[in-house]
Amino acid sequence: MYNVLIVDDEQEIRTGLKLKIDWAGMGFFVAGEAKDGQEALDKLEETAYDLMITDIKMPVMSGLELLKRCSVKYPFLKVIVLSGFDDFHFVKAALQCGARDYMLKPVVRSEMKEIILKVRDEIDDDRNKQTEHSDTQWRLSQSLPAVREQLMLALISDEGEEHLLPLRSDIAMLQLTPLMNEEALIRFLCVEIRSTANRFETGEGQSGLFRLAFQMLSREIVENSRLEQAVFAFPHPSYPNIMNYLISSDTVEQGEQRMLQLKELVHETLKLHLKVETVIAVGELHEGLSTVRQAFLSALTAWSRSQAGAITQTIYADKVTYPAEKLLLEVEKRLLILLENAELERFVHTIENMLQSRKVSLQDIYSFMLRVVLLLDQAVTKNGLAIGQTQDWIFPITQWSFTTHQSAIAYLKELAMIVTEGIKRSRASGGTAVAEAVRQYIDAHYMNEISLSMLADRFHINTTYLSELFKKQFGSTFSEYLVQARIRKASELLADPNLRLADIAELVGFANASYLSSVFKKMYGVSPNEYRTQRAEEQNR
Known about the structure:
Layout: E1 2-7, H1 11-20, E2 28-34, H2 37-46, E3 51-55, H3 63-73, E4 78-83, H4 89-96, E5 101-104, H5 109-157, H6 161-173, E6 185-194, H7 206-223, E7 231-236, E8 239-249, H8 252-274, E9 277-282, E10 286-287, H9 292-304, E11 313-316, H10 324-340, H11 344-356, H12 362-382, H13 396-399, H14 405-428, H15 432-445, H16 452-458, H17 463-474, H18 478-493, H19 501-508, H20 513-524, H21 528-540
Parallel strand pairs: 1-2, 1-3, 3-4, 4-5, 9-11
Antiparallel strand pairs: 6-8, 6-9, 6-10, 7-8
Helix pairs in contact: 2-3, 5-6, 7-8, 9-12, 10-11, 10-12, 11-14, 12-14, 15-17, 18-19, 19-20
Pfam families: HTH_18, Response_reg
Subcellular location: Cytoplasm
Main location: cytoplasm
């Protein structure tokens, strides 16, 4: 039932309108009456109305003034005005103020019924559109957390302005609030759960459910702590027992307060609900979006210094010291280049120089090992190498066995040998593995801004060579494949009748619905709407 409000300064007219037609039979209920515009506004404040029938000439507040106010405050309210022959010149003004139609006094039953039915169809249409929009917004809201987590992983996976440039627009579009202020102070907390019971052994079943519970509870901690606008929780696939928290703040004092509040909440909540010990690593405070990776690595490095075993503990990142300071800059880039060129001997020689050039502490060794392992893991991913779980290469329980720089060098050399041999095999196969890694990256990130030069930088390949390699491997150019990937996904989303074409275009990475329609028709021979209709008919057969 749709609610109706009748507004007229004459009681006889209000009563006559109520009795003129079968309101209930047409899906309406006369829920209120008012004798002037001001009383009508009071009624509208108290109850939600769908239709208002109002006279134009009334005391206190005229129908025209009422219409002007309703058009601003109640834009979805349908209004029909009553007019006598002597004030018909007001009707045009009423229609300009948003009235849907008018009726001349005395009101004829058949004419009134026709107008009411027409307005009811408009209300039905509005309701359907609102429902579709709400459903679409709900679906988008359900997928947003996962997309934000993927964006966060992309931000911490590499550094440099060229890497950040295509991600800046995504931060705003996905409303990743803690990073929307590019000058904010940021730091990370890495939270690991440990238990004396064997609940985290690799495999399916209970361990997977327990980790899922850990991740869900970690997100709820943020949602329930009034820190949601300043903190973002996300897992990293290489560290399944760890949840990471990005904390943003405007001042050092505010950042410290938020960090302490979150740290206590995490300790208490996980202990209470999961009966586990927590290892919390607090990273250094950094400034600006360009420092996200360094901020994350400082927390991860702090975590690498944690004491082995199921012991609740908090580790704070120290100020960057030798050799980490150099590794963050020139040495890290040099090591990546040597890995990509599969120059094992020079790679090992660089590591030896870092660890043997001066006296280093065990803490420096552990921090250095973690950074190098992260570089090796990065090389494995970029080259699409089929190598086992790299997160097993270094773990707090493992690294304590390396008490000298010689043992650390030997271990890192062993891992580097695995990676460089894999890169050599990939190159010998004609770049098949690299091309496949690029294809997989496109399939996973088709909705983002992707260019051939960006991929070439990411995978450390010459742009022209990558273009030729990709076309040779898959029979289409990079641009053609990207468009095809987006269109394939769009065709899947068209199965959902609640998604508008504009929503689908945004979800798959097209600039607008018109461009999507044009490309879709070239690929499928029909427009997206025709394709949607055909699929619906096939499913109903």
